[in-house]
């Protein structure tokens, strides 16, 4: 019962304030609209400035958002009343008035979104937001629409009407908007910057100058007003700038309409005179308001600097106390290196009392081998300072303790500059004892070197032992197989022989995995690409693993084989090894359902994608990051169900990456898994079949030609060799640019196939050297062989280009064209 009257009183109070705001908006909008239309019309002028929108936008910005609907409604009522009084037709009135109110609302909305609930024109950011959004964007958008509508109804030049209308709105927004916003916060600005005698005089002088300039009709003295407005903005900041802008605009409008002032000297007519007046007032406003905001900001910065300086002086004793008790040495020296201050920590670190080192050159305690390096660093720091740069350095060096022991120190010297001249006058340094850290670093470095050596020895040992184990194991497996074929072998003996063969084969698989992994780590696996039918390769893998799948009653099938091209170029042994690992794992871990081997080929990119999909237990998200690492096993417990060394997927990843591809897995637990890999596999077309019909489809180089292939990738060289030797071309290989230059200088070649990116010497540099050295192959055509040839123009040193991934057609056609072009040019 107590809260209800309070609530009703609050509601009635808010309603009363909303009604009052609506009345003020209606009255203000109507009066200003009348003043902007009727007096100019009486003197034969078009409306030079439209103040109503600026008034309404300022009223909205200075009011809380909950009163905006009442203010907007009041503006609409006032605008409609003013339009009816001016004789506008209902159609014009009902269209233009909402546009004007929409312009003011848009301006207020944009500014509030940019600066927040409270706008302070004393801040450059708020001032800039008001000028650009309220004084620029909103009038241009809505004013252009209103001018277009007005032109459609009453005729006239559309561009002329848009320019005039927009300038009227912009000028009105910038003239009355800032003044009203400043007046709404007058107490705040005057409390921050009270009226001074100089400020009042500057405002009075500005008004007097406006009366002088616009009171006479003989001289164009408009240029005298902006400096006076700037002086008022400088003296009285935002309040003075806004007040002067409003006063000058009022004086200029009244006297110009009365036939006075330099605007009436213009002979172009009322339109030109109005346009010049608008531009003058807009320019004056744009000069004075930002200048006032910047002056206020400058004053605040100066005040903050003074305050900061006072606080620095008050805290100097505290900082000195900290320096005296710091564990690190705080040192101060002149530019010649003589110490002028050393903190008490000097005794703990160097063994000297601080006063013992005063006047010394600090270099005397440094290790002789580090003295020159420290001197060079300090000199470089001083040179950087002379160029106006700040060079922060941290240096580690050796020094001698007073008892003769060598210690490690870390120093961070900084130049101290004179506040008057800005020139370096001293060096301030912070010195820390890092002997323990350096001792640990050296121990760690030695341990790392020892570990790397041990890893290399381990890898070599592993590779050697794998070879040594494979030789007798191969014999064990072979003789076990021979023994199993004996016809008179008993059932019990045959079972034992099968166990020997199975165990030996399992052990051989593990040893092979270890050997392959060791070779991959050492980079000793070389690819041997050649034309292969994907369907045949998939069929071989499925045939090998079919017994294991049948034993578990799993369906083993292939998908997508019908869409495969005839032959592609890849290393079939390595692809088969990856497939056996992936499909073998799928069969091993799947208990019920099926395993599908899916193939897909992208003809555009020449890439082969193979997926192995199973209905097994799946792989959890946490395990997916581990399964491609060495020795990783999801069921790694002692009682795990499935065997294996955990190297299969790591080897598969290494092989796929060696072939230039990528491998991955997509799976959820208990929902099966999809293991996939994608590798480049250029089309071999019918060339590999070497039949007459297929070969006829390709351009053939003349028989007996010799081609030098320069590429740092062995797989690429082997691929080119397999293609060119199939058509009777002799191929010589070079592993990088340096070897390519040497080979070209030693023997003549009919063409040179040059990779662009190689170690030691890149392809372009190698080609330039071959041409410049004038060897037996200097005039041979040089063909660029790289993926880079797709991304830009070909360098003039090359006679052609074939991109990677390689296609047989591209290679042969480019080679034939280059041979013919170079041959005709030579002739």
From TrEMBL:
It catalyses: ATP + protein L-histidine = ADP + protein N-phospho-L-histidine. CDD domains: HATPase_EvgS-ArcB-TorS-like, HisKA, PAS, REC_hyHK_CKI1_RcsC-like. Residues 315-385 form the PAS domain. It is a multi-pass membrane protein. Its EC number is 2.7.13.3. Keywords: Cell membrane, Kinase, Membrane, Phosphoprotein, Transferase, Transmembrane, Transmembrane helix, Two-component regulatory system. Residues 706-819 form the Response regulatory domain. InterPro entries: CheY-like_superfamily, HATPase_C_sf, HATPase_dom, His_kinase_dom, HisK_dim/P_dom, HisK_dim/P_sf, MASE1, PAC. It is found in: Cell membrane. The chain crosses the membrane at residues 18-36, 127-150, 162-183, 195-219, 239-263, 275-294. Its main location: membrane. The modification 4-aspartylphosphate is found at residue 755. It is an enzyme of class 2 (transferase). Residues 464-683 form the Histidine kinase domain. PROSITE patterns: HIS_KIN (PS50109), PAC (PS50113), PAS (PS50112), RESPONSE_REGULATORY (PS50110). This is histidine kinase. It comes from Caulobacter vibrioides. The lineage of its organism: Bacteria, Pseudomonadati, Pseudomonadota, Alphaproteobacteria, Caulobacterales.
């Amino acid at each position: 019962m107590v809260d209800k009257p309070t609530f009703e009183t609050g509601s009635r109070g808010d309603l009363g304030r909303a009604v009052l705001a609506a009345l003020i908006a209606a009255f203000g909008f109507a009066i200003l609209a009348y003043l902007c239309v009727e007096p100019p019309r009486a003197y034969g002028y078009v409306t030079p400035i439209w103040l109503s929108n600026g008034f309404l936008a300022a009223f909205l910005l200075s009011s809380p958002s909950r009163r905006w609907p009442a203010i907007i409604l009041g503006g609409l009522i006032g605008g409609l009343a003013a339009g009816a009084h001016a004789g506008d037709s209902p159609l014009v009135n009902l269209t233009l008035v909402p546009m004007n109110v929409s312009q003011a609302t848009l301006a207020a909305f944009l500014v509030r979104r940019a600066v927040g609930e409270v706008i302070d024109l004393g801040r450059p950011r708020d001032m800039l937001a008001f000028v650009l959004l309220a004084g620029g964007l909103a009038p241009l958008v809505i004013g252009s629409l209103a001018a277009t509508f007005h032109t459609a109804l009453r005729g006239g030049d559309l561009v002329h009407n848009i320019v005039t209308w927009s300038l009227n709105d912009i000028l009105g927004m910038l003239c009355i908007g800032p003044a009203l916003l400043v007046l709404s916060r007058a107490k705040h600005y005057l409390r921050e910057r009270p009226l001074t005698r100089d400020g009042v005089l500057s405002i009075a002088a500005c008004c007097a100058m406006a009366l002088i300039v616009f009171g006479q009709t003989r001289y164009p003295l408009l240029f005298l007003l902006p400096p006076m407005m700037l002086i008022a903005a400088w003296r009285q900041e935002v309040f003075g700038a806004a007040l002067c802008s409003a006063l000058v605009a009022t004086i200029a409008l009244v006297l110009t309409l009365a036939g006075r002032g330099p605007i009436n000297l213009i002979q172009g007519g009322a339109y030109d005179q109005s346009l010049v007046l608008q531009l003058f007032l807009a320019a004056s406003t744009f000069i004075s308001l930002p200048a006032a905001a910047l002056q206020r900001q400058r004053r605040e910065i100066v005040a903050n600097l003074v305050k900061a300086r006072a606080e620095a002086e008050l805290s100097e004793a505290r900082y000195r106390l900290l320096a005296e008790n710091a564990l690190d040495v705080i040192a101060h020296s002149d530019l010649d290196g003589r110490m002028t201050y050393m903190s008490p920590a000097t005794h703990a670190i160097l063994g000297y009392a601080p006063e013992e080192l005063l006047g010394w050159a600090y270099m005397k305690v440094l290790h002789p081998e580090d003295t020159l390096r420290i001197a060079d660093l300090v000199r470089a720091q001083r040179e950087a300072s002379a160029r106006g740069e700040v060079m922060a350095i941290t240096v580690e060096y050796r020094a001698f303790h007073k008892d003769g022991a060598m210690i490690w120190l870390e120093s961070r010297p900084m130049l101290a500059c004179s506040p008057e001249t800005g020139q370096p006058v001293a060096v301030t340094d912070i010195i820390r004892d890092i002997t323990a850290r350096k001792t640990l670093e050296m121990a760690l470095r030695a341990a790392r070197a020892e570990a790397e050596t041990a890893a290399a020895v381990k890898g070599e040992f592993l590779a050697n032992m794998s070879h040594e184990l494979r030789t007798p194991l191969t014999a064990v497996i072979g003789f076990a197989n021979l023994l199993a074929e004996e016809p008179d072998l008993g059932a019990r003996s045959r079972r034992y022989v099968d166990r020997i063969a199975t165990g030996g084969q399992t052990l051989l698989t593990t040893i092979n995995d270890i050997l392959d992994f060791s070779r991959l780590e050492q980079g000793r696996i070389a690819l041997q690409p050649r034309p292969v039918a994907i369907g045949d390769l998939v069929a071989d893998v499925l045939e090998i693993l079919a017994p294991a799948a049948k034993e578990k009653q799993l369906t083993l099938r292939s998908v997508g084989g019908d869409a495969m091209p005839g032959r592609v170029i890849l290393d079939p042994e390595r692809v088969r090894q990856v497939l056996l690992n992936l499909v073998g794992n799928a069969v091993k871990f799947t208990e019920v359902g099926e395993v599908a081997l899916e193939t897909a080929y992208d003809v555009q990119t020449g890439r082969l994608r193979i997926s192995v999909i199973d209905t097994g237990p799946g792989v959890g998200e946490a395990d997916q990051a581990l399964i491609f690492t060495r020795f990783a096993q999801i069921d790694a417990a002692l009682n795990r169900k499935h065997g294996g060394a955990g190297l299969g997927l790591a080897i598969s990843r290494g092989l796929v990456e060696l072939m230039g591809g990528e491998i991955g897995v997509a799976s959820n637990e208990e929902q099966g898994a999809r293991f996939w890999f994608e590798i480049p596999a250029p089309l071999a077309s019918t060339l590999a079949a070497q039949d007459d019909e297929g070969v006829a489809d390709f351009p053939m180089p003349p028989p007996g030609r010799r081609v030098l292939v320069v590429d740092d990738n062995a797989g690429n060289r082997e691929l080119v060799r397999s293609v060119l030797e199939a058509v009777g071309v002799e191929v010589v290989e070079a592993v990088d640019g340096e070897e390519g230059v040497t080979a070209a200088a030693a023997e003549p070649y009919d063409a040179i196939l040059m990779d662009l990116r190689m170690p030691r010497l890149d392809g372009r540099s190698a080609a330039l050297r071959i041409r410049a050295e004038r060897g037996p192959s200097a005039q041979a055509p040089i063909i660029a062989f790289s993926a880079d040839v797709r991304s830009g123009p070909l360098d003039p040193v090359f006679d052609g280009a074939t991109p990677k991934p390689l296609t047989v057609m591209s290679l042969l056609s480019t080679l034939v064209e280059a041979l013919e072009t170079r041959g005709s040019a030579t002739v």
